[in-house]
Amino acid sequence: MTTRRTFLKNAALTSAALAANPYVWTSSANADDVQDTDLKVAAIGVGGSRGRYNRGGRVSRQAAKFGKMIAVCDVDELHNAEFNADEMFGGKLKEYVDYRKMIDTEKPDIVVIGTNDHWHVPIATYALRAGCDVYCEKPLTLTIDEGKQISKVVKETGKVFQVGTQQRTEMGQNFLKAIAMVQGGFIGDNITAQIAIGAAPGDGPFETSAVPEKLDWDFWVGPARSAGYSLERRKFFRWYLEYSGGKMTDWGAHHIDIAQWAIGQDQTGPTSISGTGQFGTVVPAGFDWVAFFEGKAELENGYNAATNFEVNLTFDNGSVLNVYDEYVSEDGRTKFPNGILFEGSRGRLFVNRGKLTGKPIEDLTESDNKSLEDAIVKLYKNKPITSHMQNFFECVKDRSEPISDVYTHHRTMTSCHMCNIALMTGDDLKWNPIDEVFVGNETANQLMSRPSRSDFLGSPS
């Protein structure tokens, strides 16, 4: 662990180096500096009145401020029409249901992906191989092997890829400052992070019903195992492991990401994982998840992700991340449903989207704060700290790596998926972060991937 004295020395060197680059050191980079109407942008998965998670539409509208939006693609034609009716587009966009046809026909420079989670990697892979730069909402992957795959494709194609983990950029830079303090030795060494990401619902079973008009339900399900339509399955897909990973890949994709970055393990991973938890009411004890994903075992239609849990991830450097639905200290005096509590040999600090608190924060001097500002710029890859979308477009322009790169996000998602796999197997697991395999547990290794229905995939023409 870096000592505080070393941190301050390095920060001073960073400050001197940045002073030589006035763009990085002084500019906040106005949106007009990166706006380029020659860049053709297409939106895939935009949500709408019949959805629940409409982040795809919001980030696509953000992208339209930096490039020229030319097309929208959603398996629900109603959502295509609603997005296209926005006054910023005025009905001018081409509308598609099949992402492959849109990419092959329109040949966009950039695609923005905001679909349900299990579609992220198949669509991103197709777009990258078609020559597109990609902005994709989190969580990027459904499985560990998908992370390996998308990392390989990004490297092979050389395209710019930004994942929508905005805590790396926005939220008043609370998370960046927390990372800088942990890495700078402000709370000492022997770091443990207590991570709370909230409980998930476990309701069900639910009745299936008729597919709404203008929705291609089979395409919505896509590469996942075939399933009947229900409002709950469509709107609350995050609580179905067929399409997402519950809270582990929802809020875990944010908070585990920040914690691994802070302890300097964002390019590797834990070596041991253990935990306990409960799944939704439709999941019987000892359920065979491998058989389920292979289509050889059935569950009633209900939320099947983990509802309550405590999972521990231990790293080679001695750091430990503990992941809870809600954190309650042993003495009961500290309790929170969402956030990260970093604890070290010299103190502790708490961070979430609303605050950054703790005695180490209160004790910061003016010199400390200046050094932390310099350290944050370094964390931000020596670029101006902007909005997440603007960072992506700046990187498209200069072909550099964005702040939320695919490689560190793959390592974050690997930890998230390992939490779920530990709960699904009920075993204490050992992980080889170099070879990226579980050691001595074949069931866990089988859960690193899923069979896919291939009719909805393909290669660009």
From TrEMBL:
InterPro entries assigned: Gfo/Idh/MocA-like_OxRdtase_N, Gfo/Idh/MocA_oxidrdct_glycsds, Gfo/Idh/MocA_OxRdtase_bact_C, NAD(P)-bd_dom_sf, TAT_signal, TAT_signal_bac_arc
Enzyme Commission (EC) number: 1.-.-.-
SUPFAM superfamilies xrefs: Glyceraldehyde-3-phosphate dehydrogenase-like, C-terminal domain, NAD(P)-binding Rossmann-fold domains
Record's signal peptide: 1-31
Cited Pfam families: GFO_IDH_MocA, GFO_IDH_MocA_C2
Keyword Transcription assigned: no
Domain Gfo/Idh/MocA-like oxidoreductase N-terminal positions: 40-164
Keywords: Oxidoreductase, Signal
GO molecular function per UniProt: nucleotide binding; oxidoreductase activity
Gene3D superfamilies (UniProt xref): Dihydrodipicolinate Reductase, domain 2 (3.30.360.10), NAD(P)-binding Rossmann-like Domain (3.40.50.720)
Sequence ranges assigned to domain Gfo/Idh/MocA-like oxidoreductase bacterial type C-terminal in this UniProt record: 206-274, 385-456
PANTHER family, A to Z: BCDNA.GH03377, OXIDOREDUCTASE FAMILY PROTEIN
Protein name per Swiss-Prot or TrEMBL: Putative oxidoreductase YcjS
Source species taxonomy: Bacteria, Pseudomonadati, Planctomycetota, Planctomycetia, Pirellulales
